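Researcher: Please translate sequence to structure tokens.
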Amino acid sequence: MTTQTSVAEKKGYFGEYGGSFVPEGLQPRLDELEQAYEDARNDPAFGAEYARLLKEYVGRPSALTECANLSRHLGGGRLFLKREDLNHTGAHKINNALGQALLAKRMGKTELIAETGAGMHGTASATVAALMGMHCTVYMGEVDVARQAPNVARMKALGAEVVSVREGQRTLKEAVDAALVAFATRPETFYLLGSAVGPHPYPGMVRDFQSVIGREARQQFLQREGRLPDYGVACVGGGSNAIGLFSGFLEDPSVRLVGVEPSGRGLQTGDHAATLTAGAPGVIHGFRSYVLADDRGEPAQVYSISAGLDYPGVGPEHAHLKDTGRVRYEIASDREALDAFRLLCRHEGIIPALESSHALAYALRLLPTLKGDQTVLVNLSGRGDKDLDTALPLL
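Model: Translation complete:
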């Protein structure tokens, strides 16, 4: 099997996915970014500063938690969580935002622009902009502005300008569209892209910054249990938290890796965002991957109860991992995610994000089928404070 590193080195491609399909005027900006990132990643001082901030500012390493109560309740295997919800700002997004902000500062940029769905990446972007002394503009779909009000308030408190996008479905895809337009027309800005999507070099760069999740989890699990987990599970929208976890175990064939997409109200209804399950190869937002498309070949309208998962594409490395069979991609519905949300709250005293609840839902289906010595590691990508207004009425 080709390793992730050697695939990524084929100029932004993971197998047949990835690349850079952008207007001619935007390519020089991406070339500049690629060169700056290559210089930074080969500079020990950049790596040392990033590591220092992850420890002293973000609070890494994040904890590895065994959910003994929930495991006993379900019977079968043992459930563990990688606690990205304990990071500063409450999600995995800060890992990537911090790395890109350091790169922006190194490039002499003074303004960050970002897109956000659930608001966690927007919050992380506003946070690192304040830390670095930069201006920050966050593009967010009007629907998400309403359903993620706590995060909008946090962004504004941190000094960011939040631009409500009113075109199309008014969710994550349209926020990405608006951010890309701003990036193309304002050369002084740095586009702090939040997931492992977009044109090269973003998917590989975001994966690199999120790989701290997998490295830590692998080391922590070996130290605690003396062996690797049997399963590694993470939710997949764009796919940054999942690729962060998976990157630590891709070369360990004994670890079965599972990405969990949102089936929303059911695949048969069309109200879902299960791109790898129901989509087909195509181009979206400047890169080639699996895409959910409508009858005209345009990105389809998608849906999930989770604002962070309703995206009609997916990171190109996930598309490659699906085709090679190294990662299996499953689905979880709104109802299953809500049930998982409730069970983790009531049995473990942990309030998960609705995104993470999709991964948890699959794990809760899997656990009763396993033997008592088998283990499942779920990446709890974020905390659920932001989702309480959505979840509580439905519980």
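Researcher: Any highlights?
Model: The longest strand covers residues 256-264.
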